[in-house]
Design brief:
- By secondary structure, the protein is mainly alpha-helical.
- It has a domain of 43 residues.
- The radius of gyration is 22 Å and the shape is rod-shaped.
Length: 67
């Protein structure tokens, strides 16, 4: 797989490697992908929580109307 980065992003990655925070650019890319995956999982969980809350609210409305 080849990844093409704009010069600003390439410079930023080089700075991170040069600072010793990461051993190489692959570590930075993998960390970014790991964080993106976590963010996506959190977003999915939040959406599911909101759906449950909406369904509970709709059920409550239905119960209130039937009384």
């Amino acid at each position: 797989m080849e990844i093409f980065l704009n010069p600003k992003m390439q410079q930023w990655i080089n700075e991170k490697v040069d600072s010793g925070m990461y051993n190489n650019s692959n570590e930075i890319i993998l960390e970014g992908l790991r964080l993106l995956r976590i963010q996506e999982e959190q977003r999915h969980a939040m959406i599911e929580d909101l759906r449950r809350e909406i369904l509970m609210g709709l059920k409550q409305l239905d119960l209130d109307r039937s009384v």
